[in-house]
Design goal:
Largest sheet: none
Oligomer: single chain
Number of strands: 0
Length: about 55
């Protein structure tokens, strides 16, 4: 996994998790859903990069 893509994935995951928690805390369902979606996008990016790494070796 390239360092840049790994960093993007971790950033998206962290930002999404924080946004989801904040949305839940203030009762903003839309913000919580957007945070969950961003976290899922980060998870998917990380999985894609791990798959690419597996085929390189």
């Amino acid at each position: 996994m390239s360092a840049g893509e790994k960093a993007k994935a971790k950033t998206e995951q962290a930002r999404g998790k924080a946004e989801e928690a904040l949305g839940s805390a203030v009762g903003n369902d839309r913000m919580a859903a957007e945070g969950q979606a961003r976290k899922s996008k980060g998870d998917a990016r990380e999985a894609k990069e791990k798959t690419k790494d597996a085929f390189k070796h």
